[in-house]
Amino acid sequence: MPQVAHFPTNDSQLAHTATERAGNASSDSSNSNTEAYGDETVAPSNLNEKQAPIPSTQGRVLDDGRIEITEDDCYDELGFSFPAWKKWTILSIIFAVQVSMNFNTSLYSNAIKGISKEFDVSEQGARCGAMIFLVLYAFGCELWAPWSEEFGRKPILQLSLLLVNIWQLPVALAPNFASIMVGRALGGLSSAGGSVTLGMIADMWESDNQQYAVAFVVFSSVGGSVLGPVVGGFSENFLNWRWSIWIQLIFGGAVQLAHLILVPETRVTIMMDRIAKKRRKDGTNPNLYGPNEITPFKERFSFKEVLVTWIRPFKMFLTEPIVLTLSLLSGFSDALIFMFIQSFSLVYTQYNFGTIAQGLSFIPILIGYLIAYLMFIPAIWRNKKDREQHPNDEKAQYESRLWWLLFTAPCLPIGLIGFAWCSGGPPLPWIASSIFAAVVGIANYSIYMATIDYMICAYGPYSASATGGNGWSRDFLAGVLTIPATPFFTNIGGKRHLQIASTILFAISFVLVLAVYAIYWYGPTLRARSPFAQQLQQGRDENGGRRLSMIPGPGYGSQPGSRGHSRANSRMGSRQPSYAQSKPVAPGMGNRDHSYVHKRLAKMKKEEEGA
């Protein structure tokens, strides 16, 4: 049973506790699961400041005499301690990587007419290339994620980018339509997507400080899908359809090269392995080993554990009401963008827009994304203050993350109904429908950002699986709806078929948006009725109320080695081994990183002085 952390109430007790814990680290095996702040020394005069842990030279002594390195032994050499400029340089490259992946999904639409003409297939048939890429992209993200945590972010992302670029060639050089379908299918399956890029955020930011980085990456994800038709309008107008594919390859190749040169490995366990090897080599500690060196690969990552990991997001998607509701909301919102790719040409043809102008008509959506991103910056600051001021308030720790979405989610139905009845063509000005398209963009970004943030918090150690369901639903629904999008707008009879079609979308979105308010007010009740949440609560009770890195018992897969919960990770008590472990589970516990601990101690000291 792990030792339950307690908070000393005076300065002398603080010093005594830190010394006592450090002295017992190697003799008492139960201390191996103590929170990371257990071994740090707190200076009374700097109690309000965030302090990095003091590196230990002991590590964890195993039965065979080997010493396993811990995060506290090398914290200053991990991604958490990168300077801000380095973190944001890395994140900027990841931004470009994510844009390129989503760029590939949408630019293909501008090649549809050329493909249809050259290979004598209908335009609807040619759209299958967009559909199959998105559908397999949804599955590809989940297939790549576990391997990035086993072998490192950089090699897996490099391999993914390389394969995506290779599979562009059969499409660009296609002698027949079948070659296009095969190349697009393999390209989608090879795309790692946000499952890896979000994991890199967890490698570099502590749990209470990563929301700004998440917001930045979310902007790249949604923005990339809109950039495609903007660029595609020019390529379709001036170049052969194959250039729409060559442009994807050129962009992807440039991004891969930048990633190779500028982005180091950030995965915590991989960096710890390298640090341990370096210290053995230079004689610092010949018995020091990294977490992945301690346990053989087969034990850490068996086929059964990979299968359990891969299935878990889909199981949670179907059985967890919060995951299902928020994922459907997020997925439907994203699917609208790909339906808009088809409907915009129908709407703006009425204004005699050419190919380039139709592509530029997507810029308002991009502006909406930018507005939403900028609005989230003060919203995140407010949320952090709320959590700090109410550390024992479950609502503040969880549902407060949806607070800003309460105001922005209605932009989805408002934007759709406004776009619907401004899409009838002249005499209505085209700018009217563009304004409402920007409103839809605000909603789409806000929904994606807030739902991911909430799921990470609500599902603790298995939040990667919860957000995996979110990402899967967005890509899968967008892919499935790519084919019926145009018939949906054209097959409705009557003079106002465009208005009626978008009004139907408005009605569906109105019902889905109501779910945001239901979860905000009844989120604690929904979690209490969730069988998975009950397992988490039982595990917390057995662990003295502390956050768990994994939970025992059957259910969603408590196998060691599953994504974010490998034996190496769970054994070393990692502060941030994966994105799955980056948020608190227990209500009132807050985020037990160093900033939280010092703020809590400072608050207790002030209360004691006031008394």
From TrEMBL:
Residues that span the membrane, as ranges: 88-109, 129-147, 185-205, 212-231, 243-263, 322-341, 361-381, 402-421, 427-447, 504-523
Gene3D superfamilies given in the database record: MFS general substrate transporter like domains
Protein name: Major facilitator superfamily (MFS) profile domain-containing protein
Regions of compositional bias (Low complexity) in chain numbering: 24-33
PANTHER family: MAJOR FACILITATOR SUPERFAMILY (PTHR23502), MULTIDRUG TRANSPORTER, PUTATIVE (AFU_ORTHOLOGUE AFUA_2G12550)-RELATED (PTHR23502:SF13)
Keyword Transit peptide carried by entry: no
Compartment list: Membrane
Keywords assigned by UniProt, alphabetized: Membrane, Transmembrane, Transmembrane helix
Record-annotated Major facilitator superfamily (MFS) profile domain positions: 90-527
Coiled-coil spans in chain: none
Organism lineage: Eukaryota, Fungi, Dikarya, Ascomycota, Pezizomycotina
